[in-house]
Amino acid sequence: MRTAKLLLGAVALSALAGCSTVHGWIHNTVHKPALSELEALVPAAPEMAVTIHEGEFARIQQFVTPGGVSVWLVSEPSIPILAVQMAWKGGSASDPAGYEGLAQVVTYSMNEGAGDLDSLAFQTAMEDLNMSFGCSAESEWTSCSVSTLTANAADSMALVAAAFAAPRFDEGPFERFLREQEVGLQTRETNPNYLAWRAASQALYPDHPFARETTAASLAALTPDIARQQMRALMTRDRLIVTAVGAVTPEELAPLIDKVAANLPETSTVPDVTPIDLAAAPVSQIVVDLPQPQSLVKFMGPGIDRADPDFFPAYVLNYTFGGGGFESRLMKTLRVEKGLTYGVSTSLDPNPSFLTWSGSGQTKNESAGEFIAGVKAEMSLLIEGGVTEQELSDAKAYLTGSYPLGFDSNAKIAGQMMSVRQDDLGVDYFDRRNALVEAVTFDDVNRVAREYLDPARYSFIVVGQPQGIGTPAPAE
Amino acid sequence: MMSEVGKVLAEGFTEAEVVRARNKLAADAIYARDSQAGMANLFGGWLAIGGAVDDILTYPDQVRSVTPDEALAAVRAVFAPDKHYIEAHLLPAEGDL
């Protein structure tokens, strides 16, 4: 029954998919699709209002489906595939205390059986359709993604709809998840990055949901029933946002999305996360003992919100400081000149709930003190002398010149659109972004360096058996 | 291993097995086009050894038209007992074990 009904949709889509084979790879070599061809595919009288943003990087069609789901779609007829991303605000930070791991088991279970298909049958159905579907949970977001051939799009989305309508949460896969997590509880105790994260979160924001971790007890508390309830809380129709790229029109995609969304509860309450204020609690140095020949050094200070005028100056400065591979000050000094490390890098995280400017690198235990002193010395040099005009123009050239590389596949474009939606940057963000980088001045960058790169604002976390750090190195 | 090969040569493939395999190969080829670097490698590699652009563009349709008999003939051409696929048999030197 179900298959017969779906075939009609599949026929329409495969007819569409067939018409672009010859132009396929040529299209993909230019950033701007041939608009005349795209427009030819849109039926004349759509009942759904579609707002079109003609951008430099993508022609984004925004619409709300008849079922009420907000979608951003880039129609890309050159390859007969479709990539769909779905996201809901609210993730593992919403796990009730004592049930850490709950959002993880919910998302793990989403492709482990639905309706009369058990885990194996569901996986086989995905294979037969040559499609993929999976979900994941971050602290504040729950996400699912689908990729399918357009010829199979209707059947693939029907399988996804079944997963949302009647997920099974069978004991078998549930137990498998728990066993995998139990292994993780052991291996994380020798994972330097995990130990550094734990030490920092316990020192800096111990009572925040971001500091919680799964334990044997929290895993033991998880049951399929609790997971089923939490799935209905995390994935609701009112919070669902969708982005898609593929050889479909808005009119073809909307009913497929609605079929998926029809099975979601209308709304739920997911607690908001209180932002962490790192500036309130700097800790100069934390050492975690781990018997190994190397030390992992992480350093973390307060970051900058995207809405703050300092954000882009900081973003450009980060390239020169530690973001730009071999061109960064930290790499030139700590790797090339001093031979202390293979790699050291920094990044800005503009997550409004936890704004950070952080970095990390590994060095042998004997040189841990020298490494930390070297990082602090480079910070001080940037505060005192700023960047050079050449460094500033190199940073801008790289950051603007490499930006289009993030748009060279359907999946990447769907992901880029999803980030813009999640961070609420506006549909024209892709087109504004390089101008925002170009607008950064020499004075902006050097002012931001003075304001943010004071080593005293940073916490240094060292995991290993570091030497030469008995007393924290002075910040000069 | 040889007995499995012998079984395949004797019994052949089912229609369902071949349909499944060729759909997967066609789908993989279509998904592979969603990568610029991948396409550059694919076209460059194939053209360099004398292939044509059209071969790549029509590959999904071609692979979808493979029949169970053709698939079996390919197995026979490579793995049949009269093919000398064992070129060398490496044994430990005296006293190594």
Structural descriptors:
heterodimer, A: 476 residues, alpha+beta, Cytochrome Bc1 Complex, Chain A, domain 1, 2 domains, seven-stranded mixed beta sheet, five-stranded mixed beta sheet, 18 helices, globular, disordered C terminus, B: 97 residues, mainly alpha, 66% helix, 0% strand
How would you portray this structure in words?
Chain A is built from 18 helices and twelve strands. Chain A has helices at residues 2-17, 24-28, 35-41, 102-109, 119-128, 153-165, 171-187, 192-204, 216-221, 224-234, 250-261, 311-323, 329-337, 368-385, 389-401, 410-422, 429-438, 442-452, and strands spanning 50-54, 59-64, 70-75, 81-89, 132-137, 141-149, 240-246, 285-289, 294-302, 344-349, 356-364, 459-464. Chain A is globular, with a radius of gyration of 25 Å. By secondary structure, chain B is mostly helical. Chain B has one domain (2-79): Cytochrome Bc1 Complex, Chain A, domain 1 (2-Layer Sandwich), CATH 3.30.830.10. In chain B, 66% of the residues lie in helices and 0% in strands. The radius of gyration of chain B is 19 Å and the shape is extended.
Offer a quick outline of the entry.
The complex is a heterodimer of chains A (476) and B (97). With 476 residues, chain A is of the alpha+beta class.
